[in-house]
Write a structure and sequence with these properties.
Helix content is 77%, strand content 0%. It is built from three helices and no strands.
Length: 138
């Protein structure tokens, strides 16, 4: 945590009015809050950079997985073409992928319907904080 700058005038507390002392404290609190915000921004930037690099690696892995599935599908078509016409073999493999896509779509759609875009817990705690701020003795 950052240190709060001291005021040479504030060190002689007996010579200052309450208003001046309050002004020094307010200034120090503002400085401390600014420093904390800057620290938070730096931490968020650092974590965002790490997350971006990880996301890039996930993207590369996804593309590599796609290529594996593409070539496995091609191998399946060529394997089936040994026992039937090549066109029918390609149609069978495409139909299998269509079924996989339909199942994944349905599961994704079902899960997406359960997503709540509004952060319920945060909204509740903010309401509680506002209520407390209005009536701190309750």
């Amino acid at each position: 945590m950052a240190s709060v700058p001291s005021h040479p005038v504030a060190s002689r507390a007996g010579d200052n009015s309450v208003g001046e002392l309050l002004s020094f404290v307010t200034s120090d609190v503002q400085t401390l809050l600014r420093q904390e915000v800057e620290l938070a921004k730096a931490e968020v930037r650092q974590e965002a950079t790490k997350a971006g690099k990880a996301a890039g690696m996930y993207g590369g892995a996804g593309f590599a997985g796609y290529m594996v599935l593409l070539f496995l599908s091609l191998a399946a078509v060529l394997g089936l073409a040994n026992v039937m016409d090549g066109g029918w073999a390609a149609l069978i493999v495409a139909a299998v992928w269509a079924v996989v896509a339909a199942v994944l779509y349905q599961r994704g759609r079902t899960r997406m319907r359960t997503v709540e875009p509004r952060p319920e817990q945060t909204v509740e705690t903010m309401k509680e904080n506002a209520q407390w701020a209005r009536h701190p003795t309750r």
